[in-house]
Amino acid sequence: MIDLSVSCGGLALANPVMPASGTFGLEQAGIFDFERLGAFVTKTITPDKRMGNPTPRVSEVPNGMLNSIGIPSKGAAAFVRDVIPRFSQWRPPLVVSISANTPDAFADLARTVSVEGVAAIEINISCPNLEDDGKAFAMRPESTREIVRRLRDATALPLWAKLTPNAGDVAAVAQAAQDGGADALVVANTILAMSVDVTTRRPSLGNVMGGLSGPAVKPIILRMAYQCARAATIPVIGCGGISTARDALEFLIVGCRAVQVGTASFVHPSALVDVVDGLEAHCRETGIARIEDVIGSLDLTQAEHDMMGGAAPASDPAAYAEAHA
Amino acid sequence: MIDLSVSCGGLALANPVMPASGTFGLEQAGIFDFERLGAFVTKTITPDKRMGNPTPRVSEVPNGMLNSIGIPSKGAAAFVRDVIPRFSQWRPPLVVSISANTPDAFADLARTVSVEGVAAIEINISCPNLEDDGKAFAMRPESTREIVRRLRDATALPLWAKLTPNAGDVAAVAQAAQDGGADALVVANTILAMSVDVTTRRPSLGNVMGGLSGPAVKPIILRMAYQCARAATIPVIGCGGISTARDALEFLIVGCRAVQVGTASFVHPSALVDVVDGLEAHCRETGIARIEDVIGSLDLTQAEHDMMGGAAPASDPAAYAEAHA
Amino acid sequence: MMMPMLDHDVVPPAAPAHPAPGRPVELEAVVREHVAVNDEYRYLSLDLPEGAPHAKPGQFYHLLCPTGDGLEPFFRRPMSVYRVEPEKNRLGFLYKVTGTGTAAMARLWPGDTFNLFGPLGIGFTLPADRAPIVLLGRGVGLATMGPLVPFARENGHRVTAILSARAPDLVMSVDEMRAAGADVITVTDAEGTSAVPHVEGILEDLVAKGACAALYVCGSSRLTRLAQAVAARHDLFGEVALEQQMACGVGVCFCCVRPFRENGETVHRRVCCEGPVFPLAEALA
Amino acid sequence: MMMPMLDHDVVPPAAPAHPAPGRPVELEAVVREHVAVNDEYRYLSLDLPEGAPHAKPGQFYHLLCPTGDGLEPFFRRPMSVYRVEPEKNRLGFLYKVTGTGTAAMARLWPGDTFNLFGPLGIGFTLPADRAPIVLLGRGVGLATMGPLVPFARENGHRVTAILSARAPDLVMSVDEMRAAGADVITVTDAEGTSAVPHVEGILEDLVAKGACAALYVCGSSRLTRLAQAVAARHDLFGEVALEQQMACGVGVCFCCVRPFRENGETVHRRVCCEGPVFPLAEALA
Ligand SMILES: Cc1cc2nc3c(=O)[nH]c(=O)nc-3n(C[C@H](O)[C@H](O)[C@H](O)COP(=O)(O)OP(=O)(O)OC[C@H]3O[C@@H](n4cnc5c(N)ncnc54)[C@H](O)[C@@H]3O)c2cc1C
Ligand SMILES: Cc1cc2nc3c(=O)[nH]c(=O)nc-3n(C[C@H](O)[C@H](O)[C@H](O)COP(=O)(O)OP(=O)(O)OC[C@H]3O[C@@H](n4cnc5c(N)ncnc54)[C@H](O)[C@@H]3O)c2cc1C
Ligand SMILES: Cc1cc2nc3c(=O)[nH]c(=O)nc-3n(C[C@H](O)[C@H](O)[C@H](O)COP(=O)(O)O)c2cc1C
Ligand SMILES: Cc1cc2nc3c(=O)[nH]c(=O)nc-3n(C[C@H](O)[C@H](O)[C@H](O)COP(=O)(O)O)c2cc1C
Ligand code: FES
Ligand code: FES
Predict the structure, then answer these.
(1) Contact D41, D86 (CB under 8 A)
(2) Which one of A28, A65, A268 has the shortest CB-CB distance to C26?
(3) Which of B170, C113, C118, D41 stands the most exposed, by the fewest C-beta atoms within 10 Å?
(4) Residues of A acting as catalytic residues
(5) What is the pLDDT of residues A71-90, one digit of tens each?
(6) Does any domain span residue A1?
(7) Which pTM value belongs to this model?
């Protein structure tokens, strides 16, 4: 028996695999086995009812997708009443994603969803803070520290801060979230992007710009997850372009304690369970008893790999202390 | 005859297509017709001789590549003596890319390459500034403004500032470069990223992290180019994932006056000339006489496209004023 | 309501309740036949694996079109079932090559496998009382309407199909629909018979003759608005099958919404799981 | 130097000058034949379009392996020519399936087109004076060495090929090389004959017999170091064909560098355009 369990951000998870917010819902209950997940993560909810963005809301790009869904929401009250109780029929813990446009509303919402049946709160701080010129909370370390502190005071539940990859210094934002009292970091949300229909000269999204996700972002988000795992001591949950167990392993190896799978489920409806199965198979095949042993196992020894099957002599390390081009 | 000429950053270009720094060299002279390019852009040179980074220096990822070449360089003196004169046999203007790790060395280098045969200087300010804790100049507006100003004083040649997509607020950096006296902006360099070989648990690059380029980055860089074109009045040159004329058109439509093609040339050696041909063909087929008419022609009218061939009623715009999820 | 219900898909006009769709699965189908129907449309027939669930008329599959040679569709593509043959464990699509995904699909050869996810969405409901129905379709809409004819006939409904197209050679399914027992009327742009007033005349005639107690429409906003007007005028039951770009296909991503009228308010509904078949009166077409 | 030069690829050992490579082009070749040679290697023969430039021994092509069905190689893959048949306008590769690109390549069928870019790089040079040469190859190295045998024989050189492999059934090209006029010695791990001291003995014998005036090596760091030692000991001309990951293939990206000894200093050279064939003594293997 392979032990896939991990402790992560205040929760004990049966395995490190969970859905990414906005790509998962009760509608999938008939499609794959919910009991196989490490946790549930809901679509972000907002205090009030919202419509979301104009269509087209998605567009495909090479190896990825753009979305500008916005956050259509039935409001917090309806969510607490109608949705949360329905998750109690399954064992995995429920993580509720929340967002709001002011610190007050955000804190209120955190209180509202701190109810029986909710195991942790994921805070989507990639949304604009209307009290800070509309800049997203997670764009800067200061605003991140403040909002996390506010929310830390508002709830006793574990708090997972979901960062935005659009920040210039994600590692500093990660540290700030930890300082503010976050129990885990989700790295990261979608990357702001756009595409244009050359024939009509219109943006392919009704909202002009949208978030990029899927395999195309994986190398960028993996780098950020690695930087955050080095900068923070709280667990990092990798999220961005993970489609297969191999992708998940990359994130675990650079130091993530868990992963979220989003866009991949749109292409392969059973992607989440396939990743769990794949992790187990990988451990079995490589003689790993506990997935914990994979976490943070990145090998940084500088052996230049040799294309001809021998070890090449290491080159002068001093000459190598250069930036990437 | 389609008029592909554009004026851009102090130069009159026969067409808006040029190579991206580090992906072009005299070695290609036998491979495609150099006379067909809008301009030449050299690999970044540094003041002194450098070795570059350890191997493996490249790695492929879905629809893109990672590189950590570093800037191997024979030094400025050898470059001015041996390389610059050889470009005089062709008509397109020569843009020399330079970089250095201190403002002083950067300014000296700008002076050194301000010689006969050089039409403009592209400043690669994505490199670390050793006097600012190793943070790249272009990560923040202030350091960008300062270095551009320093270089502005050092040379009379047109100055193109090449920005880094790793900055959190690229539009602010663009404005700062303009304030500092740049004549054009190149948007952008590679995005910091990484990948891991799950079998060896080693980073796929000898340098651990490297720059992502190729089709995977296009939607992100296109968004940044659009933001910079709105924020600045000087020309923006789009660079990131452009492989075809359609890709180039997307950048022109969002407001770029020219484009650079990099990684695509590694897959299709004649990519640069193919993009020029494709732009001409597109203009011919769509009845456009001058490529200038395409620049900045993005259509932002909110017509929700209807999948069924009619115009759907526009939804409530107020409800749509939401952030992307 | 005291009328006998033939099937749980057959509901009284007053309160059309939607049947719950069968549980969707991801499966590898095998291409049986792949032919050009006319210059624009292709017919793809697939063998399903043993035990695969079967679609109801109006439901769709989400297709993983093959990648390669410069065509790299990323999303799945939604496609209505055109022919459902549960007894033979077969399925047919009628489709038009419009972009990347359908172009990739057009390269499938007999014997190739094709990854499908479905059946998805909510299909057509029939009125009670064996009431006569009228189908109104154009373009790709004909594909979606296809399986409604035998389904309605088997349930005892008289069916009239009004098929609209740009030119006579682009009208599809005429023979199939006739063979399945429908009266077929074709209208085309080329013959000048497809304009709204003319089609409206045909519909009014059918209503007057008692041949149109319910209206089904697909493939054209213009025709949808016409059907809405006629149905409202005569208080007819009606449904419309709608299209929207899809990512997940199962209701979680909210990209496939369209606007609907509900108690005087505009609301968004997801085409993939609240449709693709919707009450005619509520669609904002 | 007063020796007659047979060809500009044939240069005196004292000052080996490299021939200028032919101008590379991107072209669509057509698969003629594609067969498994043994459990690990495949042979791919291609028809080139009329007028395509031909490669010299040691040169390579940069291959655009087909994408599709989960294999999406992004870069081109470098591959030495194994057979060059200019008179028939044909080209052959001998390759091992090791990863994404070669797995994609392995799916090519006769009749398929295959996009190549080349010929690239600098090939082998022969010593002057019809001096006898010795080839030392292992694994994929044998593919690179392949065309050197007929090339050397045509230029009047006696050729001895020492072919190393894990097991006897993995030694390739023995018959071809014999047919082309080489003396072939096989050494294998399985037979315990491939260890460095044993191969060193064979080489020393050949030198002593006057059958080894120049050494060519490819496919093994161990054998390269051995060849360097023997060549240095007896002041022999020698070349080594090296591998490194490539992006551009033409010298502009600097990803394919390897370290070399040059006037006591370590320098980087690009395998794609300064090689892949390098002076034996200078490689840091
Ligand atoms: C429920 C449903 C049933 C359908 N049934 C059929 C059918 O039976 N026969 C048929 O020919 N077509 C049908 N369509 C339309 C079909 O989905 C599109 O023609 C197809 O997705 C186009 O993909 P593409 O890659 O060729 O085009 P592209 O333009 O390259 O597609 C780009 C993106 O837009 C989406 N898209 C483009 N057009 C449509 C559209 N009309 N509806 C939804 N998404 C679209 C694609 O799925 C893809 O995500 C149906 C659509 C829906 C929603
Ligand atoms: C000049 C030259 C000539 C060669 N000739 C032959 C030949 O005749 N027969 C043969 O079987 N192989 C030859 N090789 C090796 C061949 O290029 C690799 O086996 C091939 O690139 C592996 O690609 P992949 O996608 O299957 O493997 P992957 O491991 O999936 O490749 C990942 C990346 O690493 C690169 N890579 C992996 N192994 C090598 C390698 N050994 N050398 C260079 N790049 C590598 C790939 O090109 C790709 O960019 C040659 C290499 C070079 C440089
Ligand atoms: C359609 C869609 C909707 C999303 N909605 C949300 C959301 O409501 N809240 C949130 O924090 N992230 C949202 N995301 C971002 C994902 O949770 C995830 O961070 C991102 O997609 C990267 O992961 P992936 O590449 O595995 O999809 C959404 C992503 C997609 C594609
Ligand atoms: C191999 C390689 C080397 C590069 N070297 C440089 C460089 O020396 N200076 C620089 O400003 N950018 C360099 N770049 C970045 C490119 O100029 C370009 O900004 C980036 O690759 C994005 O464009 P692309 O997607 O078209 O390649 C390099 C990129 C690659 C792939
Ligand atoms: S396609 Fe995702 S909700 Fe309909
Ligand atoms: S592969 Fe680009 S320099 Fe050799």
Answers:
(1) no
(2) A268
(3) C113
(4) 127
(5) 888 889 999 999 999 999 99
(6) no
(7) 0.93
Torsion D109-D111-D116-D118 (CA) sign: positive
Q: Taking residues B232-246, what's their average pLDDT? A: 98
Q: Which of B96, B102, B174, B101 is nearest to B138 (CA)?
A: B174
If asked whether residues D102 and D154 sit together in one domain, one would say no
% of chain A beyond a pLDDT of 70: 92
Pocket of ligand 2 (CB under 6 A): A 307; B 60; D 60, 73, 75, 77-80, 82, 93-96, 98-102, 140, 143-144, 243-246, 271, 276
**Environment class of residue D176 by beta-carbon count within 10 Å: exposed (0-12), middle (13-18) or buried (19+)?**
middle
Ligand 4 lined by B239 (C-beta under 6 Å) = yes
Q: Are strands D41-47 and B17-19 parallel, antiparallel or unpaired?
A: unpaired
**Closest by alpha carbon to B25, among B69, B68, B59?**
B69
What band does B303 get if pLDDT is binned at 50, 70 and 90? low
**Overall size of chain B counted in residues:** 325
C4 belongs to a structural domain: no
Which strands sit side by side in the sheet containing D277-279, from one edge to the other?
D182-188, D159-165, D133-138, D214-218, D237-241, D277-279
Q: Which string of b and e fits A217-247 if b means at least 16 CB within 10 Å?
A: bbbbbbbbbbbbbebbebbbbbbbbbbbbbb
Quick check: B69 contacting D, CB < 8 Å? yes
Q: Within a domain: residue B198?
A: yes
Low-confidence ranges of chain A (pLDDT < 50): 304-325
pLDDT higher than threshold 90 for residue B323: no
Which pLDDT belongs to residue C22?
60
Supply the pLDDT for residue C69. 77
Gap between the Cα atoms of D162 and B6, Å rounded: 61
Quick check: B253 contacting A, CB < 8 Å? yes
Rounded Cα distance between D142 and D158, Å, is 18
What CATH number corresponds to the domain at position A91? 3.20.20.70
Q: How far apart are CA A61 and CA A56, in angstroms?
A: 14
Residue C253's domain spans which residues? 133-282
| Average pLDDT value for residue range B171-197 | 97
D113 assigned to some structural domain? yes
Residue C248 lies in a domain: yes
Place of tokens 């379709």: C137
Segment A250-284, tens digit of pLDDT? 999 999 999 999 999 999 999 999 999 999 999 99
Domain that holds residue B92: 6-323
Contact at CB, A266 and C245, closer than 8 angstroms = no
Lookup: tokens for B95: 């843009």
Q: Residue C73: closest CA among chain D residues belongs to which residue?
A: D68
Alpha-carbon gap, residue A206 to A204, rounded angstroms: 7
Give me chain A's average pLDDT, please: 91
The mean pLDDT values, 10 residues at a time, for chain C of 285 residues are 35 35 86 92 95 93 91 95 92 94 95 97 94 93 92 95 90 88 93 93 96 95 95 96 97 96 93 96 92
- The contact set of D with B (CB < 8 A) is 23-24, 26, 64, 72-76, 117, 244-245, 247-255, 257-258, 268, 273
C-alpha–C-alpha distance, residues C155 and A74, integer Å: 39
- Rounded to a whole number, what is the distance in Å from the CA of B46 to chain A's nearest CA? 11
Q: How far apart are alpha carbons A311 and D259 in whole angstroms?
A: 13
